[in-house]
Amino acid sequence: MSYETITVKPIAGALGAEIGGVDLREPLSNQQAAEVHQAFLDHCAIYVRDQDLGPEDIMRYARYFAEPSDYPFVEGIPGYPQIFELRKEPEMADNVGGAWHSDTTYLDKPPVGTMLYAREVPAYGGDTMVANQYLAYEALSDGMKRMLDGLVGVYSAGMRRDGGRSGRAENKYMKMKGTEEAEKYIAEHPVVRTHPGTGRKALYVNNRHTIRFKGWTDEESRPLIDWLQVHCTRPEFTARIRWEKGTITIWDNRCCQHFAINDYTGQRRVLWRLPVGAELPV
Ligand code: SIN
Predict the structure, then answer these.
(1) Cα(79)–Cα(5) distance, rounded to whole angstroms?
(2) Cα of 160 from ligand 1 centre, angstroms
(3) Known active-site residue 258
(4) Cα(251)–Cα(276) distance, rounded to whole angstroms?
(5) Options 43, 87, 101, 212, the catalytic residue
(6) In angstroms, rounded to a whole number, what is the distance separating the alpha carbons of residues 43 and 40?
(7) CA nearest to 11, candidates 129, 111, 102, 141
(8) Which residue is catalytic, options 189, 195, 208, 273?
(9) Are 46 and 40 in contact (CB under 8 A)?
(10) Residue having the nearest C-alpha atom to atom 8 of ligand 1
């Protein structure tokens, strides 16, 4: 696709692009908004650099993709319940999102996208990896595709697929809510979903939240979930988003997994995070 009002620079062979030519402190023109949305569909994860944004600007940008939605377990910043702060201070060991996953797949209608805005970044490290789940599906054999096409996954917020507690990193800087109710968040979705915007099929399994396949035991499910997780995140399906202060990113949870790399202990990293949209996977 050719773009007339924005620039779109791919950052890897699999997915990811840097968008230029927009100032997100102002509303986008209709054509810019349409082209940014098209770039999101074409590249699965897009970012814009050097943006000096407040919460209103972020909410306005999010609405070019879908209506902002809620994250069930962390309180938002004052006045903006849907935006919460991801903060890792120098003395903290754990980060949030330090395992491959797609966001909140245990909701009946998981978010279409996740938007993150970098307010403070480490001098090095703290990148986020993304992985293209269309490519992961397309690389499977016809036999595996046939089996997965009919499968339904069971996704849980409370338990990992190995039976342990889900690794939701709680820290004193993030005001948690509802974590005692995590067990109640359980959903069933197709293991192969069709993206409504592109018509392409994508794998929708992650070993953080997918606990079994419907009609299978946990023991039967685990080896396949584990194999799929390794397959889904093969290096040639991935890209790395390198944060700078003022970078704003959105990835498409319908066709991406992501992984926040925890390699910056001793440094601070502060991002605002906003789930965007809510859609039934089909
Ligand atoms: C997440 O939402 O999983 C965290 C992403 C990040 O901090 O890069």
Answers:
(1) 33
(2) 18
(3) yes
(4) 10
(5) 101
(6) 5
(7) 129
(8) 273
(9) yes
(10) 260
Tens digits of residue pLDDT in 185-218: 899 999 999 999 999 999 999 988 999 999 999 9
DSSP-based three-state secondary structure for 38: helix
Q: How far is CA 22 from CA 35, 51, 64, 215, 255, in A?
A: 11, 9, 13, 48, 25
* Per-residue pLDDT tens over the stretch 123-174: 999 999 999 999 999 999 999 999 999 999 999 987 554 444 444 555 678 7
> What residue's CA is closest to ligand 1, atom 6?
260
| Closest residue by CA, ligand 1 atom 2 | 97
Residue 216: alpha-carbon gap to chain centroid = 27
Q: Which atom of ligand 1 is nearest to the CA of 273?
A: 2
Which domains can be identified in the chain, with CATH numbers?
7-276 (3.60.130.10)
